[in-house]
Write a structure and sequence with these properties.
Order of helices and strands: HHHHHEEHEHEHHEHEHEHEE
CATH class: Alpha Beta
Oligomer: single chain
Radius of gyration: 19 Å
Largest sheet: 9 strands, mixed
Number of helices: 12
Number of strands: 9
Structural class: alpha/beta
Number of domains: 1
Helix content: 25-40%
Strand order of the largest sheet: 1-2-3-4-5-6-7-8-9
Amino acid sequence: MLPASESAADWRQSLSDLITDPRELADFLQLDQRQNPAGELALRQFPLKVPRGFAARMEKGNWRDPLLRQVWPAAAEERAAPGFVADPLRERHYNPRPGLLHKYRGRALLIAAPHCAIHCRYCFRREFDYQGNTPGRRDWLAALGYIRDDASIVEVILSGGDPLALADRQLGWLIEAIADISHVSTLRIHTRLPVVIPERVTAELLAMLAQSRPRVVVVIHCNHGREIDSRVAAALGALHGNGSTLLNQTVLLRGVNDEASTLFSLSMRLFSENVLPYYLHLPDRVAGTSHFQVDLDSALAIMGELQASLPGYLVPRLVREEPGQPAKTRMS
């Protein structure tokens, strides 16, 4: 790992120097964009954002590369599909304070940051009201007061956007404020940064997490084993060695990871980096993402193959999130 001052500057530079032009990404990957034009409407609705280090893991000359498929603004996003809507999880109904979502008993989620380092094209929050959920300090105090007043909330989840896209000062303030709420015993951080910008795992971040009174659970988001290179492995190793519990959530995506062999390799690779597979999500039915959908029968067949070839602790739970339900719905 880099010295603290160098690594901090490194991740900020990576976050500010993203690939945002499809022509640049296509040229970097030696692809002819005429074969797969970017959707202009898709780009206006949800701009391209790809860290350069993540793009470097893509196979040049291959439009079917599973990492590229996750980020390329395809024209297919512009096709309307029945049942695919802007807010499939109805999160606006569970938003009692700016920056706070409270869907499940015992847990509350804070929209810690309104932005990500990467725009995953299947994102269920691609049309989320981030403008109305980017609190100033007074609104943050109101959201934290809501949690303090509800003793049933024992776990706080930092999400977004991506909470690790926050500067250390703001992130540290949030973590300390959560730690001051005595009935909160677990701090869960949902993040893609250790995968897409692994240099974000700095000495400063590790110290901040190590000092947290609530137990820290870091849930990364990795969909394919090729997303994990040596730098990602080092970042995950540092988080594990620092005492964080590491879990992974994967979204089952057509053309990316909808084969049992791909998910088998992912589970094995994650375990080699001390990360346990957690959920395998059926994609949320968000507008513009129908081309990623995998039907339930196919998903169950994949799960059957995984259960036959992996030890139980390496088989993720196949789930779908359904609005109004008390928890994720396990599919079986």
